């Protein structure tokens, strides 16, 4: 009987945090990735088993995951890696988790729903930040008032910096349009043009700009709400740069330009250090409305995003090891409920009405 789980991309910034957290809990996941030296070094450091394989050959992937119950896929950008790993999980009848935040990846994963049910597995993309806290808040708010037809979410990061993986994913999407959901359909918007003022518990006003965050895909499946916008609270100069990208998008989409930016990213620190993570926090805000004028607002106070990802991803993998999950492509709150996020340290949900 399959019992263990495998962490693929274990030595990336977030993959390493996840591997370390699993080891701290006394778990013995199999660490895996394509770089033999880096996989083996981390496995020795954490005293964990390991395997080395890449994602070029689907049969090789199947061979390496057939004896595990869950794959926790941490090697992005997921638009390039998720399809092979998910297809291999179908063949191996191994549950699939990943930590993507890319809406187009979520859309492609939801297209696998019938195949996942037929294979008898759970496919759950986005088991970190994004989208666990936003998904839980969306479901919580949806249940506050009847007939919700509009959901707006906003993110705010307080301190810290992004990892290489996150930055490279952003670079790969440079020059692309923003995205929202309207009447159940995905709709493009120009970058930096859709703004709203967000008021948190501190009564201060923050400017949010619409971004193509994963919840335009996941929250729609979790709640059925047809109109969804996700904002990121950013400095004015960043929003100005987003607007400028609309005029030079054709340049930003060129492969040599992307490669240049990615090479520059790799020369920077891999991500926030431990002190930065401990001293940083994040916030998720949400509001729902219905056609009758009803509304509800709430927010989540959260740990730093990468720290939270390690907590939620490992917990979800543990839960699947302990109890067979429902099958198909499902969201975190869709399986574990709106209160799932509340069990983690430094998480607080606040009603703003």
CATH fold group of the largest domain: Dihydrodipicolinate Reductase, domain 2
Biggest sheet features: 7 strands, parallel
How many separate domains make up the residues? 2
If helices are DSSP runs of H or I spanning 4 or more residues, what is the number of helices?
A: 15
Strand order across the largest sheet: 3-2-1-4-5-6-15
- Helix fraction by DSSP (H/I, runs of at least 4): 40-55%
Q: What is the average of the pLDDT values?
A: 90
CATH architecture of the largest domain: 2-Layer Sandwich
Proportion in β-strands: 15-25%
Q: Compute the separation of the termini in Å.
A: 49 Å
Main CATH class of the largest domain: Alpha Beta
Structural class by sheet pairing and helices? alpha/beta
Q: pLDDT under 50 segments (min length 5)? A: 163-169
């Amino acid at each position: 009987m399959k019992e263990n789980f495998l962490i693929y991309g274990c030595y990336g910034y977030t993959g390493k945090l996840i591997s370390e957290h699993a080891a701290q809990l006394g778990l013995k996941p199999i660490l895996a990735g394509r770089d033999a030296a880096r996989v083996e070094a981390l496995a020795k450091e954490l005293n964990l088993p390991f395997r080395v394989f890449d994602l070029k050959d689907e049969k090789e992937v199947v061979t390496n995951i057939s004896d595990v119950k869950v794959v926790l896929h941490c090697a992005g950008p997921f638009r390039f890696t998720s399809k092979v790993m998910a297809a291999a999980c179908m063949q191996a009848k191994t549950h699939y988790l990943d930590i993507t935040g890319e809406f187009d990846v979520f859309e492609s994963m939801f297209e696998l729903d019938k195949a996942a049910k037929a294979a008898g597995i759970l496919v759950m993309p986005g088991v970190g930040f994004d989208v666990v806290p936003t998904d839980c808040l969306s479901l919580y708010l949806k249940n506050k008032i009847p007939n919700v037809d509009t959901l707006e979410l906003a993110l705010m990061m307080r301190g810290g910096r992004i990892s290489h993986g996150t930055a490279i994913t952003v670079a790969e999407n440079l020059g692309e349009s923003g995205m929202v959901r309207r009447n159940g359909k995905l709709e493009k918007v120009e970058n930096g043009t859709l703004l709203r003022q967000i008021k948190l518990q501190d009564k201060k006003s923050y400017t949010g700009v619409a971004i193509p965050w994963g919840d335009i895909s996941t929250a729609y499946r979790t709640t059925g709400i047809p109109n969804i916008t996700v904002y990121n609270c950013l400095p004015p100069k960043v929003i100005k740069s987003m607007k400028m990208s609309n005029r030079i998008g054709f340049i930003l989409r060129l492969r040599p330009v992307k490669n240049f930016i990615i090479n520059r990213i790799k020369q920077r620190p891999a991500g926030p250090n431990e002190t930065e993570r401990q001293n940083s926090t994040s916030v998720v805000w949400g509001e729902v409305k219905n056609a009758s004028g009803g509304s509800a607002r709430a927010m989540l106070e959260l740990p730093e995003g990468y720290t939270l990802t390690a907590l939620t991803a490992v917990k979800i993998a543990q839960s699947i090891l302990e109890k067979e999950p429902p099958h198909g492509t499902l969201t975190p709150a869709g399986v574990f409920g709106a209160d799932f996020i509340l069990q983690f340290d430094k998480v607080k949900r606040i009603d703003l009405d």
